[in-house]
Predict the 3D structure of the following.
Amino acid sequence: MRNGDAVVELTDVRKEYSDSVALDGVSLTVLPGEAVAVMGPSGSGKSTLLNMIAGLDRPTSGSVVVQGTDLGTLGETGLALFRRRGIGMIFQFFNLLDDLSALDNVALAAQLTGTRAAQARARALELFGELGIAGRRDVYPARLSGGERQRVAVARALMNRPALLLADEPTGALDSRSGEQVMDLLLDLNQIGQTLLLVTHDERLATRCATRVIEVVDGRIAREQSLERTP
Ligand SMILES: Nc1ncnc2c1ncn2[C@@H]1O[C@H](COP(=O)(O)OP(=O)(O)O)[C@@H](O)[C@H]1O
Ligand SMILES: [Mg+2]
């Protein structure tokens, strides 16, 4: 049964690689405004799950519907457009472009969807202000701290106002203090309505930020728990 309001609806998703089964029948619904944390051992399928939702890879069987669009009906061009416009993604190692300034890294995300350069810069500047990195706009990634790099990556992910923000171990490469700051930032974003799905190893950060925690073991959802979030 399809839930028309869902941001994400996975139905019996299976993903096989040549020598392994990464996802073994995962069904998952994410509603608007949720912050879902995905936990589980290394190699259990967490990144594969995110990549299915991001349209970075396709399931062997089962369906992935994001914002009412069945990704299985999209060709490669359609999937690329979906990735640029429909979702924002942040990664453990930031994935910033080294030869662009912080601001240009962020503005580029909007330019790739056809937004004019001046308008893209204006939106990027607005986000830099909101995320507390306005003073770092002209700095290149190599000169930014890990926490600053991840803030820039969050700004980039938010540029096109995605319905869904996906984060794969966003604090995995950060010291605990910057990790907490990035997690607080994600919490703030969720509290103003941003739907969030994040993979993390850190149970404390997960419970601080998430409204629901799911645990993936051997490619299956083994446990699921809704949380009361205390402000
Ligand atoms: N591109 C790939 N090719 C082959 N096997 C892969 C690929 N990506 C992931 N896997 C395998 O799928 C399983 C799940 O991997 P992954 O989703 O990265 O786990 P996690 O993010 O939980 O650590 C692992 O056994 C991994 O080796
Ligand atoms: Mg992973």
Remarks:
- Residues 176-191 form the longest helix (16 residues).
- The CA atoms of residues 71 and 150 lie 28 Å apart.
- The first strand starts at residue 8 and ends at 17.
- The mean pLDDT is 94.
